[in-house]
Amino acid sequence: MIKVALIGDEGRISAVYGGGRCERLAEEFDLYPDPLTVEMLTDRREELKDIECLFSTWGMPALDREQIALFPSLKAVFYGAGSVQNFARPFLEAGVKVVSAWAANAVPVAEYTVAQILLCNKGFFSAARAAKALATRGDHDREAFPGNYENTVSLLGAGMIGRNVIELLKPYALDVLVFDPFLCEDDAVALGVEKVTLEEAFRRGFVVSNHLANLPATKKMLRRDLFESMRAHASFINTGRGATVDEPAMIEVLRGRPDLTAVLDVTDPEPPKEGSGLYELENVVLTPHSAGALALEVRRLADYVIEEAIAYRDGKALRYEVTLEMLETMA
To answer: 74: which of 147, 263, 282, 300 is 20 to 30 A away, CA to CA?
Structure first.
């Protein structure tokens, strides 16, 4: 049997690979008995020489070339979480495959996003604020919010999460606009969306939902003039990356336009610094990075990478392998 090991934070490994997932690994593979930490590697060099696959999740250590060399038989790393940017490159450069459960993590983010889109289109957050303010109770303008029929939603990014959002929105009669430089026209047609510029996305969408990766090219890409151009009573949702937003500029626009709503699950930094306007503005809804996999949902991450590892063992194609080229554009 292929020899495999778990590596990383033991608490997170227990959460993700709980509920029988470790037991399944032990059934399908020759599983090293203890989760590994960086501190163990040198002392256990002889025991690691036949390990072919590593499994991990959040807390995966960023091993250097010398540490990777302690696994001379290593062929693949199966990461039960999303972004691999902090550790993948040295493995890939050493010829080790890296497989991520980003598709599994995309599921709860997409579900969360769609829930927020539907609420924003109905004016939920504005209505809730009005209902709690005695002076304005009853003053909420119901007609200012078009609802979820023949309304327009803009998505920034058509990666795994964006495409899941598109799929989940299909039961609703909504026009979906997408800004994504990497989305070709044929794919846009196949997805049933309209490809637009960033400016069009902000100007036309009643909800603008951000799913852009945090890359040098996207840093502070979402700037003041874009927020200023948003429709009356529109909403901005961010479950992507806070660094893609020019946050001070967004705060100024939100302060000057109380009709807008920002639903922010991510910020930069995270959480916002003490004294940030994001805490004081009534038209900002803050959540603490809640869109991703939580509680029992995290086990889906293990399920995805275990299935990928079985496919690897059986010589079948991998669905979620990450390449060096992909690191240039993915989150």
So the answer is: 300
Regarding whether 65 and 213 lie in a shared domain, the answer is no
186 shares its domain with 267: yes
pLDDT tens figures, 92-119: 999 999 999 989 989 999 999 999 999 9
Give the mean pLDDT of 49-59.
Answer: 97
User: Sorting pLDDT into bands at 50, 70 and 90, what band is 136?
Assistant: low
pTM of the predicted model as reported, rounded to 2 decimal places = 0.84
Q: How many CB atoms lie within 10 A of CB 183?
A: 18
Cα distances (angstroms) measured from residue 120 to each of 45, 145, 186, 231, 294: 55, 8, 30, 13, 23
Same domain for 118 and 216, yes or no, is yes
| C-beta separation of 313 from 2 below 8 A | yes
| Rounded distance between C-alpha atoms, residue 142 and residue 126, angstroms | 10
Question: What is the token pair recorded at 243?
Answer: 């660094």
For the purposes of burial, counting CB atoms within 10 Å of the CB of 47, is it exposed (0-12), middle (13-18) or buried (19 or more)? middle
For 188, half-sphere exposure in the C-beta direction (CA atoms, 13 angstrom radius) is 17
Angstrom CA distances, 27 to 154, 187, 194, 280, stand at 45, 40, 47, 53
Within this chain, do residues 63 and 85 fall inside the same structural domain, yes or no? Answer: yes
